[in-house]
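Look over this record as teaching material.
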Amino acid sequence: QVRLVESGGGLVQPGGSLRLSCAASGFTFSTYGISWYRQAPGKEREWVAFISTTGGVTNYVDSVKGRITVSRDNAKNTAYLQMNSLKSEDTAVYYCKAAFGAAAYWGQGTQVTVSS
């Protein structure tokens, strides 16, 4: 059974940090590119970051560049999103997506709330 499970979300003050995890099972994780998305209340889902199968290529939406880093550990079938210098506008549900060709799997999301 294919599963993607995000974790690590929570409540953090502005300027704080969180590390999200995306744990995969049921498919060959190392052959899938991983993307992170987020959806804030009342807004459309937004792409945040991408990491290639080996981690050699990463891309970010402009609004998070310099603050957020995507990584992966293929030995652990897990991807990560390290988020620093968090702002209130980063508040959203964060999702990971694994994609390979026409196949794509989504996790259930983890809530990140940035508030004082």
In short: The radius of gyration is 13 Å.
